[in-house]
Automatic annotation (TrEMBL):
Glycoside hydrolase family 20 catalytic domain: residues covered: 177-505
Protein name from the UniProt record: beta-N-acetylhexosaminidase
Annotated source species: Crucibulum laeve
Active site: E337 (proton donor)
Domain of life: Eukaryota
Length: 683
């Protein structure tokens, strides 16, 4: 037996199938190969067995995770079914099985030296695949490893039998915090979409979602003028109708009820992802000052006046209402970009909220790193600082030396903005050059890297106060900038590379992936990620043709809710009214009037610069990619665009991408005829 580095690429998958583990995302810490001619044969008869003494340990329990794993295994293998889960403490080798248990004996530490309960061991023989974890969450990560190996095999061809190499391995993450932040304060997202993001991120061993749940757009001409009340702001947690806080939610149709949010947390937790909510104060608080104008700083409606006697009691009342909703051990109070001249008020507020939230719920708090130039006060070291920029004294190496726990969200590496950013400041997805080779020492990014140009600003990987990292996707331009699926397109690859770098680091473990290996396996794993279908992938009726109809008797219902790009949708229409919907689906609707695409989740319309003539046939050919959508009509291209208000300084046109509205044809009052309809997937 020998130890080896995971260097095999997907191109050599079949000849080396029984000889080694395939590179995956994130990479496995260590694997010692068994016999190169033996393998675990996975078929639809495989038995999932949960060790009886461990089955009900934890919340979610080991059995809960096993049930989700069973569904995922069916999804990845495409078996029609597998046997029911068995709870037993002595599995028999007579039947090939996957055995899940607790009690891993090897000591697992994060790079900072703190003990990790996320480590697991796995043993693969001809009849058994055993995963033994420190806790149920550790076993869950072990099942992700198994599923990814299966996906890489089935990505080639398995003909009903999947072979995984024999051997023993161990794995554990380098950092405790491996998360992503979604700005839901300036863009509305339904809970079901966020749940799907949790499920997808979990496949790459991301362990938390930081949900930025209150904020406002920033446009100085509105904010500092007479029309400040008209600027978009939102608070996403919906208090009961009878609550004294009901006025804090201006858009109840853009907020989550307690039941919806509880289900969201449950779904994320069932996939190993903790949901960390953020209510942002005392800055970014326009939604509060619209409700209670007396609490704002005069002339700065988005900033709360902390010296007003009702301000802090009001904020405490908000947390009192919603703390019982939150299952996480931590919450974020935001606390960024507040007036530096009021540093003492700010520091006193942060410390008071830290003590208050702890006393009320036992939870600790996080804040964004903010320059607070006080010579008399300092923020409590009980507060975790989420670094994002380098103003003043918020230098991470200095913070950790002072005893602060730090999370890396440095914007130069880890910030994205929905659709675009001001002057191209942030990329569409995480910059791959920076992630793989952008550190000042020439290595790739890792959570200890805060600067690409000055290594003195970087901590060591084993800094005891470095907790990990959170990448962030902001939505500075509001609801009309993107559809939810466009946000997924920005996150999909980014979450995978981020999962590798926060689990393994760069240059710390010999097993770390190369960029070439990542590029080879990512498309396979992205397509296989179970439990959700954010790609809106479908099985066409034949070839690449999703469906094809010569004539339509409206309304017509299909078996396809939504189809992701790239695709071509072609049809001929003769409308007798400008009302009605030509095509409708889960993620989009195409209206007769101005051939407008509608995003059903935000109810935003995106008009095409074309009007269908009544009582006259027009042939329309719609081409969509993940970057854009256009119609070809009479030989001319017409693009679906949005107009973004960039900080109130200038307007910027941007392309829109829409999933095909494929579930219904000729609905919601459509009048006329539709014929020669075809929906075809493109490569």
């Amino acid at each position: 037996m020998r130890s080896f580095v995971l260097q095999t690429t997907l191109g050599f998958l079949l000849p080396l199938l029984a000889a080694c583990l395939q590179p995956q995302i994130p990479s496995v810490k260590s694997f010692i190969q068994g016999s190169p001619t033996s393998a675990f044969r996975l078929t639809s008869r495989v038995q999932i067995i949960v060790n009886a003494p461990d089955a009900h340990t934890g919340s979610p329990s080991l059995l809960d995770f096993a049930r989700t794993f069973k569904d995922d295994l069916i999804s990845v293998t495409q078996f029609s079914h597998i046997p029911d889960i068995i709870i037993d403490s002595q599995p028999s080798l007579a039947q090939p099985h996957i055995f899940l248990s607790l009690g891993a004996t090897s000591e697992n530490l994060y790079f900072n030296g703190n003990p990790s309960r996320e480590g697991y061991n796995f043993n693969i023989s001809t009849r058994s695949y055993t995963i033994t974890g420190m806790e149920p969450i550790a076993v869950w990560w072990g099942t992700r490893t198994l599923l990814q190996q299966v996906a890489l095999v089935t990505g080639a061809s398995h003909k009903g039998v999947i072979e995984l190499p024999s051997g023993t391995g161990s794995d554990s993450p380098g950092w405790e915090v491996r998360g992503f932040m979604l700005d839901a304060g300036r863009h509305w997202f339904e809970a079901s979409f966020i749940a799907d993001l949790c499920i997808y991120a979990s496949f790459f061993k991301i362990q938390s979602l930081h949900l930025h749940a209150s904020d406002n757009l920033w446009n100085p001409s509105f904010l500092y003028g007479q029309d400040w009340r008209k600027l978009y702001s939102a608070f996403r947690f919906q208090p009961p109708a009878y609550s004294a806080l009901s006025g804090i939610v201006p858009l109840r149709n853009e907020s989550w009820s307690r039941e919806e949010f509880t289900q969201l947390q449950t779904t994320c937790a069932a996939h190993g992802v903790a949901l960390v909510p953020e209510i942002d104060t005392p800055g970014h608080s326009l939604v509060i000052t619209k409700w209670k104008p007396e609490l704002m700083i005069p002339g700065a409606p988005d900033n709360l006046n902390l010296s007003h006697p009702d301000t802090i009691p009001t904020i405490k009342s908000i947390w009192n209402e919603f703390l019982p909703w939150f299952s996480s051990l931590e919450v974020s109070i935001g606390a960024d970009e507040y007036e530096a001249a009021l540093a003492d008020d700010y520091i006193s507020f942060v410390n008071e909220m830290s003590s208050y939230i702890s006393s009320q719920s036992g939870k600790s708090i996080r804040i964004w790193g903010t320059n607070e130039p006080s010579k008399t006060l300092s923020i409590s070291t009980n507060v975790t600082i989420q670094h994002w920029n380098f103003p003043g004294d918020t230098i991470p190496v200095e913070l950790t030396k002072k005893g602060y726990k730090v999370i890396n969200s440095e914007q130069s590496f880890l910030y994205l903005d929905g659709k675009t950013s001001d002057g191209g400041q942030f990329p569409t997805e995480l910059n791959q050059d920076l992630m793989w080779s952008g550190a000042s020492d020439g290595g790739g990014w890792a959570p200890n890297i805060f600067s690409s140009t000055d290594s003195s600003n970087n901590t060591s990987p084993n800094d005891p106060n470095l907790r990990g990292a959170i990448m962030a996707l902001w939505n500075d331009w509001g609801n009309n900038a993107t559809t939810p699926l466009e946000i997924y397109y920005q996150l999909s690859r980014s979450l995978a590379v981020f999962g590798e770098k926060t689990w393994t680091g760069s240059g710390v473990q010999a097993s770390a992936l190369t960029r070439d290996q990542f590029d080879r396996v990512y498309p396979v794993l992205n397509a296989a990620a179970p439990g959700q279908n954010l790609n809106r992938a479908v099985q066409p009726q034949r070839g690449n043709v999703v469906y094809q109809y010569k004539t339509i008797i409206a309304p017509l219902r299909t078996s396809f809710d939504s189809v992701g790009p790239p695709y071509t949708l072609k049809f001929t229409v003769n409308p007798t009214s400008q009302d009605g919907v030509l095509f409708s689906g889960r993620d989009s609707k195409l209206h007769v009037r101005s051939l407008a695409f509608e995003d059903p989740s935000t109810q935003k319309f995106y008009w095409l610069n074309f009007t269908l003539l009544l009582n006259q046939e027009t042939t329309v050919e719609i081409h969509a990619t993940r970057e854009s959508t256009y119609a070809l009509i009479n030989g001319q291209k017409y693009w679906w665009l949005t107009n973004l208000d960039i900080w109130g300084e200038y307007m910027q046109l941007a392309n829109m991408s829409f999933a095909a509205p494929s579930s219904a044809i000729g609905v919601d009052g459509f009048a006329g005829r539709i014929k020669d309809v075809s929906l075809v997937l493109e490569s």
